Amino acid sequence: MVRHFLDIHRLSAEDLRAILDDAHARKAARQGWPKGRVDADAPAKDRVLAMIFEKNSTRTRFSFDAAIRQLGGSSIIANAGDMQLGRGEPVEDTAKVLSRMVDAVMIRANDHEDVERFARVSTVPVINGLTDRSHPCQILADILTIEEHRGPIAGKTVAWVGDGNNVCHSFMHAAAKLDFHLQVACPADYHPDLHDLAKGGAHVTLTSDPREAVKGADVVVTDTWVSMGDGDYEDRLEAFDGYTVDDALMNAAAPDAVFLHCLPAHRGEEVSDAVIDGPRSLVWDEAENRIHAQKAVLAWCFGG
Fold it and tell me: Can you state the angle between helices 91-99 and 112-121, rounded to 10 degrees?
């Protein structure tokens, strides 16, 4: 059976924990190594990863390319607009062709349904590199970072402040699987999708008050208020007034609370310079950990 990595809620808690543990172990084993050296077990030796991008990317592109190389494989990168996919070839036809040419496919897509359609006919693993609905790879990197600095995620309280977007959805999925609590603060018109909220169950609470969400939190997380494709910039700036993660808001969290942001950040909007550049910020570790998390995802997809 082909192992796809499309959404955290589709994984068992055991598989999710195993992926995270593997990410921790792979990172630890590479301390002091050149970034181009292949891992000792080389689980992707002779394998090729195709990467398809419908959206611009920095961290996803570089981290997946580095990840497959460190696992012993190679990559082919294409923008969807440069492929026949961008000229209207059915997603299913592209999936059938690439299944005969590569060993796995990572897609950073506009529409979540396109990734699901691709996976339904693909005979090789398909990985969700981001869609409008979820961003599971980012959340693995976030949890890896939290655990490095604050120990096991189970029992922790994470506060999400801002837009109830795709990253927020994946955080809610993870809360139920890994037994932590997620306190989400969003304006009423920008709350998370209710189906995704339900997947978090009792592990997720929803409020419109940022200070209520961060109270006692071990981790404070935010993301840009205006994502790629959003055309209501001015409306969003008005709606999110008061949601900036600044020193005052961080001080309402636990004394040793840390800050995360998946980047890119709009400084002065969702986060202040003092917080993102301050001692409680882990955003640079978080960005690096995209590599280690994605290596563990790839190894799992290949049967590890």
Answer: 50
Cα–Cα distance between 116 and 20 in angstroms, integer? 23
Query: What was the pLDDT predicted at 229?
Result: 65
Selection from 245, 303, 254 nearest residue 104 by Cα: 303
Active site (catalytic) residues: 108, 135, 138, 223, 262, 290
pLDDT tens column, 127-153: 999 999 999 999 999 999 999 999 999
pTM above 0.85, yes or no: yes
3-class secondary-structure state, position 49: strand
DSSP conformation class of 101? T
Burial class (CB in 10 A: 0-12, 13-18, 19+), 53: buried
Give the H/E segment covering residue 21. Answer: helix 13-29
Give me the amino acid identity at 61. Answer: R
Question: At 286, which helix (H) or strand (E)?
Answer: helix 283-301
b/e sequence 204-213, b meaning 16+ C-beta within 10 Å: bbbebebeeb
Tell me the C-alpha distance between 162 and 265, whole Å. 13
